[in-house]
From TrEMBL:
Taxonomic lineage from the root: Bacteria, Thermotogati, Thermotogota, Thermotogae, Thermotogales
Keywords, sorted A to Z: Amino-acid transport, ATP-binding, Nucleotide-binding, Transport
Signal sequence extent: none
Family under the similarity heading: Belongs to the ABC transporter superfamily.
Protein name: ABC transporter related
Biological processes, Gene Ontology terms: L-amino acid transport
Length: 232
């Protein structure tokens, strides 16, 4: 669905991503692992159109997209939910969700049903101001808002960051549920084990390069890999 061909991302003299290639398969969950500063966020931003490439190309559903502005990529169904959990604080949960659907032309009641079935807590808090939600609820809202645009490819940057262990489990289950509705997921996670348990395929980045890739199942079963790359 998404082919990343030898892309390089630079911030001035700093090379954050160096000629990496990845193949994100349709309807799967692909996870991007790696230590802090490995280049995971820079890769997602390049796919979303928020970082320029200094080398390489990106194809989505067979068409080259790396020169399209970010908003056109959103229209094509490529949506990034960034790490910062930015929601419109002075708007209610419901208003935030409506804002997520602004690129949609048809009715959005189906999307409301979907996000409330995945995140029932948000339904209970529909009229609450987003700024008063807990960190975990805000994360749910950020993802739910992204879903309102009906993405084909949903990119999530560290959705479990800062969540208590039981909420990490809930979050991973929600991501799996989203995927089961037909949305392709590209997930960046520090929480390697939880992510690999729901993923189909994984790439491991180290200082801007892909150092390892394979099926999630194979990675989880390889003791050397677990010790060397996934924190034991
Ligand atoms: P983290 O898990 O800490 O978010 P990451 O794997 O997502 O890490 P990136 O945020 O993509 O890594 O950063 C990759 C490299 O690029 C790092 O060395 C970082 O310092 C550098 N970098 C990222 N953003 C910028 C920027 N705006 N200006 C300069 N350097 C940057």
């Amino acid at each position: 669905m998404l082919e990343i061909k030898s892309i390089t991302v630079q911030y001035g003299p700093v090379i954050a991503v160096k000629e990496i290639s990845m193949d994100i398969r349709q309807k799967g969950i692909t996870v991007l692992l790696g230590a802090n500063g490995a280049g995971k966020t820079s890769t997602l931003m390049a796919i979303a159109g928020l970082n320029d490439l200094s080398h390489g190309s990106i194809f989505f559903e067979g068409k080259r997209i790396d020169r399209l502005p970010a908003y056109e990529r959103v229209r094509k169904g490529i949506v990034l939910c960034p790490e910062s959990r930015l929601v419109f604080q002075k708007m209610t949960v419901m208003e935030n969700l409506k804002a997520g659907a602004y690129t949609r032309k048809g009715g959005i009641s189906g999307e409301f049903d979907l996000v409330f079935s995945i995140f029932p807590k948000l339904k209970d808090r529909a009229k609450q101001l987003a700024g008063t939600l807990s960190g975990g609820e805000r994360q749910m809202l950020a993802i739910a808002r992204a879903l309102m645009s009906k993405p084909k490819l949903l990119m999530l940057d560290e959705p479990s960051m800062g969540l208590a262990p039981n909420l990490v489990v809930e979050m991973m289950a929600a991501i799996k549920q989203i995927n089961e509705t037909g949305v392709t997921v590209l997930l960046v996670e520090q929480n390697a084990f939880s992510a690999l348990k729901i993923a189909d395929y994984a790439y491991v980045l180290q200082t801007g390069k892909v150092v390892l890739e394979g099926s999630a199942e194979d990675l989880l079963q390889d003791k050397t890999i677990v010790e060397q790359y996934l924190g034991g």
